[in-house]
Amino acid sequence: MSGVADHDQPLVGHATAGPGGVMTDEVGVITGDLTVETSPRPDGRADVRIQYTDADEWYVLTGSPTDIPTAGLPTLHEAVLTLVRTGGSRGLHD
What we know:
The protein is of the alpha+beta class. The chain has one helix spanning 73-86; strands at residues 11-16, 22-24, 28-30, 33-40, 45-52, 59-60, 66-67. Strands 1, 4, 5, 6 and 7 form a 5-stranded antiparallel β-sheet that branches. A two-stranded antiparallel sheet has the order 2-3. β4 (33-40) and β5 form a beta hairpin.
């Protein structure tokens, strides 16, 4: 069973990127105060987007889409927020 049944709405959180920021597909590394959106897909995976807080543009976090763990979408979302806070110029699977 995927985590989609546990949470079918996007989760949004805020974090300040750690040293080195995080990697996006469109613009490379971004840093600073960021907003993260983790959205379930019908195929049991999740899209992860990121933006500078209060900006209009969203970017795909490198490695998205990714599998939703059996623990559910909230677990994935918290892991992404931890990744952002850790920094290191990484994407989801680095």
